[in-house]
Amino acid sequence: MSYFICNTCGVQHDQSTREPNECKICTEARQYVSVNGQSWTTLEQLIQCKRYINEFTHEEEGIHSIKTVPSFGIGQNTYMIQHEKFNVLWDCITYIDKETITKINELGGIQAIALSHPHYYSSQVEWAEAFNAPIYIHEDDKEWVTRPSKQIVFWKGDQLKLQEGIVLHRLGGHFKGATILEWQKKEGVLFVGDIVRVVADRQWVTFMYSYPNFIPLPANTVARMANRMNTIQFNKLYDAFHRVISDDAQNRVQLSAKRYIAALEGNLFNT
Asked: Where does the record place a coiled coil (predicted)?
């Protein structure tokens, strides 16, 4: 019996005696099946091949990013937020080994894991069991959980306070239960996964239904997301791929939403 992991998205599935026929994450319109076909691995195989390590980067006081090198699956990084003896792992990556566990324990362990959306569920149960931490997932995305666990807490509504100063907000858009995390530190820091994605020009963000398949979100959905984010006080924004808006992030999100909507409605350009 093994917990098989999809090589394309990096999401771990429930225990089975043989490889699943398909990955429910990748066969859906927001993801894709590799042109080489569906293939599987396990965490044990990833560790035994000795190809991968997790690199820790100290982004700023209280924030470490963790990224698997070389890249695996979608290639996102996770963030460890150190907040008054309550450490939160924001989003997740597939690879976890003894060295990673030791390093995190040296930083104070993990008291909670929070997920933005199903593409980053990866091996979240392995992480939760390693640190005996609850996993917070919005109930609207319950159907996408591929490995059930008693560690998972399905929350409801538009907001959940994990701890004083750490708040989850359901934003929707990319997924119905798509979530962002607000850290009420200094001027405010927002962690968005790719529910909102920082683009190549770090002064702008974008919003998509599917990034690999280039499917945009409707104008009214983006307007709703922007209005919701306008109620949150933040000055800095981190996405899932080491892209950061370091200053004036709240204003940049609003300007980006207006530009996005103008493009969809045919008011931004004439070609």
From this structure: none
